[in-house]
Amino acid sequence: MPTLTSYEPISRAAIGTVNITTAAQLPMLVSAAQQAQRDWATLSLGMRQQQLNRAFQQLTPVQDQLATLISQEMGKDYRRATYEAGGTIQSAAYFTDEIAQALAPERLDRNTELQYRPLGVVAVIAPWNYPLAMANNLLMPALMAGNAVILKPSEETPLVAELFVNTLNKILPKGLLQLAQGDSETGKALVASAIHMVAFTGSMATGKHIMASAAPALKRLVMELGGNDPMIVMASADINAAVQFAVASSFENAGQMCTSTERVYVDSRIAAEFERKVVALARQYQVGAWDKPGVNIGPLVNPLQHQKVLNQLQDATQKGAQLLLGRDDYPLPFIQPTIVTGMTTDMLLERDETFGPVVAISHFKHIDEAICRANDSPYGLGAVVFGGQGAAAVAEQLEAGMIGVNQGIGGGAAPWVGAKQSGFGFHGTTAGHRQFAQVRVISK
Questions:
Q1: What angle, 0 to 180 degrees and rounded to 10, lies between the N-to-C axes of helices 271-282 and 239-251?
Q2: Which residue is catalytic, options 84, 155, 252, 258?
Q3: What is the mean pLDDT of the chain?
Q4: Whose CB among 168, 187, 325, 382 lies 3.0–4.6 Å from 339's, allowing a Cys bridge?
């Protein structure tokens, strides 16, 4: 049986292996899921909630082990990995309650009821940068809605997924939640199988392939397809607050975050002060291994991602950008905190998602120029603007699914939604949870 090996990002030492799910095996997984789903769908919403809550309680004893695996497999420091594991596990009961409220039948009038019924089998294809949290954000509403789930984790984080699913399956019915381990070939075969919905987080290119593959059977889709998030810093902005956000957002999770700030457009009147303070703050960030005290930035997940960041930095310097901090030729596996100024529209830093700890800056003289460049992208996940009077008006002109004014994007009561080619459908909150269900109108 073919196997998949998980490697630690710094030493590239093998951590463990899992069995790859082949295309020939997928029909058996789907058949088992279909059988389990039929029984699961007969349970009331409350009964499904009780079983899921019991299943998630089983994760508490392995919370530290999950956090360690997150750090070992994708490199984030243990503090951040602990937040991810702990937040996923400890918020489960609250999450199921929120979903239960969203999926409860609604009485429209004396004779008509709106129901949220199961779709069938849902394929959840999860990323490596938040391997536990982002998988759970999709599989939890899918299961609560009465569906079965086949989880295809990233090939970078198979051990996290294996421990997560195997632990939940101590309580959940057999076949209801299954794993399909492997690379993109496994993912393609899963999307092409007899499932009913794909919930995906990943690249725009992969999302387009999934949409094409899902089209013949009109499979439901919920996809978050990355971002190239802009930040506009107006002359009236609180510079210290803007600096703090720009650096923190660009460097979080070593920049490997879909809503990381990728492009900073700063008014030329305050650009010198802004850049000086960005460099000073960035120098305070510590780079190193996940178990090293005080580390803020871990390694890039693999050599391919590391080289992608170097390609963008080298493209920028060759086209005239200046490095205020850092260099463009870092050895594996780290990218040190890097500050680039002079970003122009023809640079890869401006056109593409970077996914590395880089603050890329460009100056503007007129706010209309900043708005135009911020919007000149196929991506539209998040955007922020920092400024005083007029900042809200600027925000209204930005083309993104989530926009922050003098703060980051999103919030606990808001769905996670992308505009343009950053998203298709969305998840989170009442409206997002309902996308994992079939709406049915019963008139009596």
A1: 50
A2: 258
A3: 97
A4: 325
**What span, in angstroms and rounded, lies between the C-alpha atoms of 95 and 259?**
22
The residue among 276, 371, 287 whose CA lies nearest residue 325 is: 276
Q: Is the peptide bond before 105 cis (omega within 30 degrees of 0)?
A: no
Residue 112 bridge partners (DSSP): 443
* Averaged pLDDT, 370-382: 98
d(CA 280, CA 324): 10
- Three-state SS for 393? helix
Cα dihedral sign for 8, 12, 13, 14? positive
Cβ neighbours of residue 85 closer than 8 Å, sequence gap 6 or more: 63, 64, 66, 67, 70, 132
For 156-167, write each residue's pLDDT tens digit: 999 999 999 999
Closest CA to 349 of 380, 382, 386, 318: 318
> 8, 98, 224, 350: which is the annotated catalytic residue?
224
Q: How far apart are CA 135 and CA 126, in angstroms?
A: 5
Which two structure tokens, joined as six digits, stand for 307? 């080289």
Nearest C-alpha neighbor of 224 from the set 252, 243, 200: 200
Q: Is 252 a catalytic residue?
A: no
Residues 6+ apart with CB under 8 A from 65: 163
In this structure, what is the dihedral angle of CA atoms 202, 304, 330, 128, given to the nearest 10 degrees? Answer: 40
Q: What is the pLDDT of residues 336-358, one digit of tens each?
A: 999 999 999 999 999 999 999 99
The pLDDT assigned to 410 comes to 85
pTM of the model: 0.96
